[in-house]
Specification:
By secondary structure, the protein is mostly beta strands. The protein is 0% helix and 46% strand.
């Protein structure tokens, strides 16, 4: 059963309600030691809003690890535009949408989980791509940051590997 609009038969959009949902699950590993921003492969997703007044809810569930004392800044982008970015960093501080960090207490064996939610107003009905980028900002030696696995690769039950997900929900305006 559907609810059809009286005049155009395109359906009814109820403000504040979901219109469509797209999602991806990253099941493989990703590693970087770059202090410059790099795309996190597998965490990019497109949506074509049905109305220019729609909002897009971006949700990220990220499993990550790294070397002891690792720090990383993660940015959310719509196309080439960074959105949800801190604006108060000064000097050598890192501007990011999300920051993560590990300690010095055997962190290389740990898998951490973190999440981000952001409500965007893309104001378009064209295909819109959202993606996440990361840059490492600390840590000894190589500054290795990993997605879906800890830094250590021991063949042991305490090495936990996970998955990360990205979901886009169009919400009627």
């Amino acid at each position: 059963d559907t609810i059809n609009e009286k005049t155009t038969n395109n359906g009814v959009y109820i403000p504040g309600h979901p219109v469509q949902i797209v999602s991806t699950t990253k099941t493989d590993d990703f590693e970087t030691s770059s202090s410059s921003l790099v795309d996190i492969t597998g965490l990019s997703l497109s949506i074509t809003p049905k109305q220019t007044s729609s909002k897009v809810l971006i949700q990220l569930s990220l499993n990550w690890g790294g070397v002891n004392n690792i720090y990383a800044g993660i940015r959310l982008l719509r196309g080439a535009t960074v959105i949800s970015l801190n604006t108060s960093a000064t000097g050598n501080q890192t501007l990011a949408s999300l920051g993560v960090g590990g300690d010095n207490n055997n962190f290389q064996y740990k898998l951490e989980g973190t999440s981000l939610q952001f409500l965007d107003s893309p104001s378009t009905t064209s295909a819109t791509t959202y993606k996440f980028q990361v840059q490492t900002t600390g840590g000894p030696g190589t500054n290795l940051f990993n997605v879906n696995r800890p830094h250590a690769t021991d063949n042991a039950a305490y090495i936990v590997k996970g998955t990360s997900t990205m979901t886009l929900t169009e919400i009627a305006g």
